[in-house]
């Protein structure tokens, strides 16, 4: 079992539940921002420090692995370590993921935004009152896209919802799940395969980073 703690966060589980619902519609793209002023680590760059969290969330929510990744970064504080990174992930079903990670942004952000044809769902980890917000707004195509006369763009405007999310400590949930799996022999939610998948994606990100942003396959 690997310690992908966000998988045991009730708000992340709610994010997946809403994104996978029929009300959300077709998934278009998902964007994550993970920024803060520090902690600047001497052993790894900001991408290896921060991005695995969002990679694991994307994999959990989308239930898919990216086909290719592209990454660029900036070395502003250290000549050999990136302190900011921008990563784009392309999934086999056409969904696009984007991750922004930074040690040098004075605004602390821990946010994942999923945009679909009917809704936009936001997970804000620093908002203790509204961890999840659902915007019932979206855009989709109606009619025959091959015929200009029948092509229509449907815009949907609705309410902004803030559902109640149960309060529990993710680390405690993770430890309890670990003990349950030890006792029962069940496969954990974040088992060895989940850990391997995140590492495979991170290795592809590192290859793209070293190649100046060239898209690299996830192998």
Word description of this protein:
With 219 residues, this protein is α+β, with helices and mostly antiparallel strands. It has one domain (5-217): Dihydrodipicolinate Reductase, domain 2, CATH 3.30.360.10. It has helices spanning 10-19, 46-62, 170-184, 192-210, and strands at residues 27-37, 68-74, 84-90, 96-102, 104-116, 120-124, 132-135, 138-142, 152-156, 160-161, 216-217. Helix 1 packs across helix 2 and helix 2 (46-62) crosses helix 4 (192-210).
Question: What are the SSEs and their pairings?
Answer:
Blueprint: H1 10-19, E1 27-37, H2 46-62, E2 68-74, E3 84-90, E4 96-102, E5 104-116, E6 120-124, E7 132-135, E8 138-142, E9 152-156, E10 160-161, H3 170-184, H4 192-210, E11 216-217
Parallel strand pairs: 1-4
Antiparallel strand pairs: 1-5, 2-3, 2-11, 3-4, 5-6, 6-7, 7-10, 8-9
Helix pairs in contact: 1-2, 2-4
List keywords for this structure.
Dihydrodipicolinate Reductase, domain 2, alpha+beta, nine-stranded mixed beta sheet, 31% strand, globular, 219 residues, two-stranded antiparallel sheet
Please outline what is shown here:
By secondary structure, the chain is α+β, with helices and mostly antiparallel strands. 28% of the residues lie in helices and 31% in strands.
């Amino acid at each position: 079992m690997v310690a992908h703690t966000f998988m045991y966060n009730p708000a992340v589980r709610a994010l997946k539940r809403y994104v996978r619902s029929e009300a959300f519609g077709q998934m278009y793209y998902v964007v994550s921002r993970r920024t803060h002023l520090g902690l600047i680590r001497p052993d790894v760059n900001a991408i290896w420090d921060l991005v695995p969290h969002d990679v694991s969330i994307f994999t959990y929510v989308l239930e898919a692995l990216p086909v290719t990744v592209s990454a660029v970064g900036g070395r502003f504080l250290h000549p050999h370590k990136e302190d900011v990174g921008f990563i784009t992930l392309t999934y086999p079903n056409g969904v696009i993921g984007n991750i922004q990670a930074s040690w040098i942004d004075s605004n602390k952000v821990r946010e994942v935004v999923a945009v679909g044809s009917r809704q936009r769902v936001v997970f804000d980890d620093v908002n203790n009152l509204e961890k999840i917000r659902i915007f019932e707004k979206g855009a989709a195509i109606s009619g025959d896209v091959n015929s200009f006369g029948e092509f229509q763009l449907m815009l949907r405007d609705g309410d902004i919802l803030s559902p109640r999310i149960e309060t529990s400590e993710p680390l405690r949930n993770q430890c309890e799940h670990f003990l349950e799996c030890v006792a029962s022999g069940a496969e954990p939610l974040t088992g060895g395969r989940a850990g391997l998948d995140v590492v495979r994606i991170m290795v592809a990100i590192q290859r793209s980073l070293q190649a100046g942003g060239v898209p690299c396959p996830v192998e």
